[in-house]
Amino acid sequence: MISKIFILIVLVAIIAVIVSSMKVVNTGYVTIIERFGQFHRVLEPGWHFLIPFADFARRKVSNKQQILDIEPQSVITKDNVKISIDNVIFYKILSAKDAVYNIEDYKAGIVFSTITNMRNIVGDMTLDEVLSGRDKINAELLKVVDDITDAYGIKILSVEIKNIIPPAEIQQAMEKQMKAERDKRAVILQAEGQKQSDIARAEGEKQAKILQAEAEKEANIRRAEGLRQSQMLEAEGKAKAIESVAEAQSKAIHLVNRAIIDSGTDEKVIALKQVEALKEMAKNPANKLILPNESISSLGNMAAIADMIQKK
């Protein structure tokens, strides 16, 4: 009975040793293994077998990107203004062995390196430079802290300033300044808008006057052209009317002469009758006589004939 119990105990011990010698490493992590107190190897994700009582799992280390939030720290600027700044650090462990054996606590090393160098950088800047130079501070911190953590096997991916909090009186002064600046911009924008409106209105009035002047000019031109054409048509009408009257009178005189000649009347008598007819026509001031050239050239002859007839 005692031997059976002993054998059972031995089997349980053997099973316990076998189970304890099996080591499972999850994805995203590595494990530092020491053998007899010295670094032996780094276990990657997967199943591994260790030598019982010889191998020891020193630490499980994450090789994923990690975030380290640093509490707000008091910093004095170059112009003696006390401000509060807090940071966020993004980092990744590249060498688990260095992170475990080269520093006692790599997270504390990152935090204190960041705080110390942030105070050095901000201490050389004025408040205005700090408020407007976040990118500059982040870049300088990243370079300095990354150089320091290279010895830990850690890569600093990014250093970001979350908040910069100045004293209450500085905040009030800044708010007043910002309000004054906003009011100033509002007045400038309003004045600029009024200026643009006045320019647009003046330009519109100018264009309207130009168009009105052009319209009046065109109207005057058309009015003058219409008056000219009307006068030309009126003159042409009068000329045609006078020409028609003269032509009718000439035809009438010709017919009378022809009738007298056909009746056998003497030419001297005819000439005398023509002169008398012309005298009667000329008595009326409303009558206008237009004679052909041949009639005008023969007036002298008719006058001479008339004198002869009267003398007889």
UniProtKB/TrEMBL annotation:
Keywords: Hydrolase, Protease. GO terms for biological process: proteolysis. GO terms for molecular function: peptidase activity. GO terms for cellular component: plasma membrane; side of membrane. Residues 20-178 form the Band domain. It comes from the Bacteria. CDD domains: SPFH_paraslipin. Pfam families: Band_7. Belongs to the band 7/mec-2 family. This is Modulator of FtsH protease HflK.
